[in-house]
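Re: [ENG-882] Designed sequences occasionally contain unexpected residues at chain ends

Forwarding the minimal case from QA. C-alpha cells:
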C-alpha cells in the first residue's frame, strides 16, 4: 500500500514533519507508511483507503463528438 494513493495522507507544511496521516493522527518526516510499518513490526497499514477516482469531464468541443 502506498500513502500517495490513500485518502488519509495530507501535507502538514511543517518543515520537520511534512507528511501526516488522518487515520492515525500522526505527522512524520517520512511518508506515514514507513512509520506505521516500523510501529507494527512490518505489517502493512490497516487504515489504507484508496482515493476516489476523479471522473474525466467530456470536452464537447472535441471533434470526435461532432
Amino acid at each position: 500500500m502506498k500513502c500517495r494513493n490513500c485518502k488519509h495522507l495530507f501535507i502538514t507544511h511543517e518543515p520537520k514533519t511534512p507528511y501526516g496521516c488522518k487515520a492515525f493522527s500522526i505527522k512524520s518526516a517520512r511518508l506515514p507508511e514507513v512509520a506505521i510499518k516500523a510501529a507494527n513490526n512490518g505489517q502493512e497499514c490497516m487504515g489504507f483507503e484508496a482515493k476516489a477516482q476523479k471522473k474525466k469531464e467530456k470536452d464537447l468541443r472535441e471533434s470526435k463528438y461532432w
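QA comment: On inspection the terminal residues look reasonable. The beta strands are 9-11, 19-21, 26-28. Proposing we downgrade this to a documentation issue.
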